[in-house]
From TrEMBL:
Cross-referenced PANTHER family: HYDROLASE, PUTATIVE (AFU_ORTHOLOGUE AFUA_2G14860)-RELATED, MONOACYLGLYCEROL LIPASE
Domain of life (superkingdom): Bacteria
Record-annotated Peptidase S33 tripeptidyl aminopeptidase-like C-terminal domain positions: 234-278
Pfam short name (any one): Abhydrolase_1
Annotated protein name in UniProt: Pimeloyl-ACP methyl ester carboxylesterase
UniProt xrefs under InterPro entries: AB_hydrolase_1, AB_hydrolase_fold, AB_hydrolase_sf, Pept_S33_TAP-like_C
Domain AB hydrolase-1: 72-177
Length: 309
């Protein structure tokens, strides 16, 4: 009995130590600075604006001198993760365009919402916040690139504010109607994570999950799963490029093809070898492949990812 008690006490002590370490590490992640020296070397800066009820942080790249002659590009992040994982794509697109990447309310550096708004915002509320942020920044019209859950927000945004949208890129749009359950989504995310190693944005994800908090993360996952983007796509008037990769288990090719067909002005681009977060894992290839569409060519063709880098 004495031995069993000693073992139990040791296990409890180890568990308590692990919990204390995780709590300290969680606090450290929450206080990670918004921008790093790597960000600044890539030409990326950041700032805050008051967008309606929210104080929103955003990253931006000023682009070349002649970029002011073109509509800016706005990058919309995915589920729980912030615009931090959009930095690689912003750095590449910044060679030709002005690029902006906001943290939507509740995520990243925009996580400190007023007490009455600490709940997870709906897709419609996130779309409204994005529009308020544009107004605060003096952006009247833009081209938008969304990844994953960001595509769901952009579909709503394009319907509510069509005058603000020049064109859309939906990369890895969620949610595949055949995978509208939490276990399936988690399994697909895990499969994608294995395929993206060692370029995975998982370390950045841990920072952003800590900043958003687990209650908001879980509530937003439920919103993602319940939303029926396929019912809104036929109402999106802007030219839209749907992009997926042949190795993306989250937004597989069959679903992406259906999404493109549902759009009145939709075009499909299938990237051979592409995974779910092209914006982070293959930013140079992704930027190269969508550049013709951003510049006005609505007829891109499928390309091999490795040859495009």
């Amino acid at each position: 009995m004495q031995l069993q008690a000693s073992v139990l006490a040791a296990c409890m002590a180890a568990a308590a130590g692990a919990a204390a370490w995780l709590a300290v590490r969680w606090r450290q992640l929450k206080h990670t600075p918004a921008l790093s020296e790597t960000s600044r070397r890539a030409g990326i800066d950041g700032g805050y604006v008051q967008a309606g009820a929210f104080r929103m942080f955003y990253r931006f790249h000023r682009g070349p001198p002649d970029a002011a002659d073109r509509a800016p590009v706005v990058l919309v992040h995915g589920l729980v993760i912030s615009s931090r994982y959009m930095e690689p794509l912003a750095g590449v697109l910044g060679r030709r365009f002005r690029v902006f990447a906001p943290d939507l309310p509740g995520f990243g550096e925009s996580a400190r919402a007023p007490p009455a708004r600490r709940r997870a915002l709906s897709i419609a509320e996130l779309a409204d916040a994005l529009h308020a942020w544009m107004h605060a920044c003096g952006i009247e019209r833009a081209m938008f690139i969304g990844n994953s859950f960001g595509c769901q927000i952009l579909a709503e945004f394009a319907i509510r504010f069509p005058e603000a949208v020049e064109r859309l890129v939906m990369q890895g749009p969620t949610t595949d109607p055949r995978a509208r359950t939490l276990p399936i989504q988690v399994w697909r995310d895990l499969r994608n994570g294995r395929r993206e190693q060692p370029r995975s944005p998982a370390p950045i994800g841990r920072i952003d999950y800590a900043k958003a908090g687990l209650p908001r993360a879980i509530a937003t996952m439920r919103i993602l799963i319940r939303d029926r983007i396929e019912e809104r796509l036929p109402r999106v008037a802007a030219p839209t490029l749907v992009v997926t990769g042949t190795r993306d288990p989250v937004a597989p090719c069959a679903w992406a093809a259906r999404a493109a067909r549902l759009l009145p002005h939709g075009t499909l681009l299938i990237v051979d070898g592409g995974t779910h977060t092209l914006n982070y894992v293959y930013p140079h290839a992704f930027a190269l492949l969508i550049a013709p569409f951003l510049c006005g060519d609505a007829q891109p063709v499928a390309r091999d990812l490795e040859n495009a880098r």
